[in-house]
């Protein structure tokens, strides 16, 4: 999974001098900040299901603004210095979110969203992931319906997720409002769909159903999901591997 | 009453059609299930340009508001059925759909009246009692506009920013509510992350909405894209202060 890139720029003063300078007006400071991760495809690669115009604004303005605003907040915050995953969990503060939560979670969510899609996406997963979906939802069409229904019944802004639940050791579909994501419950996200209006309004206006179906049929990256499942199995024991009998 | 169940008009109708025997109708209450419909705007879709585009007004009214009404009617019908059957868990389960869609209908009905074309008084600051109240509670009309715009811009996700009258304290104040909550209602959210951004507690009957501004993205996205502050800067040109003043005079009496 590609995290946001951490970039460093060094002050012109030597590290060793940092202690000596503590207390002086111009203390040297090494500042790290989160970068804006680009989608792993060109901005027009998801046409006609998600237009270049949408990607330009959704990634270039919304996502970028979350990154910029997060960095501004962290410049003077005790939460400075965490990885993005840690930051999201800490800032969630067990349901009483700190000011940094919204920006941090939205940065995380959008990073994850671009990777949940691919050009020529959609259709179905294969092999192990498909088997797990069939095991936990009954069938792939059942899963698809659950995902779409959950997306459509979100009130207001939010995201819909396919997650691997660590405790129950099974896949589930979860909807959450605004910026909340499954990391805060200790679950492992597999794919996500942005249901904020800005994600679909330019291409679909109010027709959320068409957008969700387009995601399922033509955008979702099952390859990406499969890779995440493989990684998730390092943390969640899903049972004995099926070893084929010769 | 003990001999009679509440019968909805629909059930009564079908019972009569099928030639059912006497229903003890002398003791029966017949509840009529009301369906709601889309209220008309008192101005053309394009009349609020350039502050709000005609395209947005048309979709906002004909699609979004209509959808709230359609789903509200549907939820009420299902609620009616569930009550008839005594299906408590279904009744409880329908509350969030009713709150959301009914709330959306209420809020948008207020919103259309909060707007007026500039040649019909839109944008003209309030005079009289509301004007004085704003000066008293915010310092100046400009200060109110600035504060309301910044609170609207800062609202995370979807919601509304309101100018409301606290009847108890006799003060006007600004509130924000998430999704389709009305101003001054306490939040009972079940969905993780649904934040109540307004003042805590249930103020219920002590507050009246004078003015509401929709800050859901659908209210401005086609025209302003992600720049909600620009939408909030421009909408003041078409705000119907006369309606807000009348509401104030009515409530404060």
TrEMBL record, chain A:
Its cofactor is Fe cation. GO terms for molecular function: metal ion binding; superoxide dismutase activity. It catalyses: 2 superoxide + 2 H(+) = H2O2 + O2. It is found in: Plastid, Chloroplast. Keywords: Chloroplast, Iron, Metal-binding, Oxidoreductase, Plastid, Transit peptide. Transmembrane segments: none annotated. The keyword Cytoplasm does not apply. One of its GO terms (cellular component) is chloroplast nucleoid. Pfam families: Sod_Fe_C, Sod_Fe_N. Its main location: plastid. Destroys radicals which are normally produced within the cells and which are toxic to biological systems. Belongs to the iron/manganese superoxide dismutase family. This is Superoxide dismutase. It comes from Spirodela intermedia (Intermediate duckweed).
TrEMBL record, chain B:
InterPro entries: Fe/Mn_Superoxide_Dismutase, Mn/Fe_SOD, Mn/Fe_SOD_BS, Mn/Fe_SOD_C, Mn/Fe_SOD_N, Mn/Fe_SOD_N_sf, SOD_C_sf. SUPFAM superfamilies: Fe,Mn superoxide dismutase (SOD), C-terminal domain (SSF54719), Fe,Mn superoxide dismutase (SOD), N-terminal domain (SSF46609). It is found in: Mitochondrion. It catalyses: 2 superoxide + 2 H(+) = H2O2 + O2. Its EC number is 1.15.1.1. Pfam families: Sod_Fe_C, Sod_Fe_N. GO terms for molecular function: manganese ion binding; superoxide dismutase activity. It comes from the Eukaryota. Its main location: mitochondrion. The keyword Oxidoreductase applies. Belongs to the iron/manganese superoxide dismutase family. This is Superoxide dismutase. It comes from Spirodela intermedia (Intermediate duckweed).
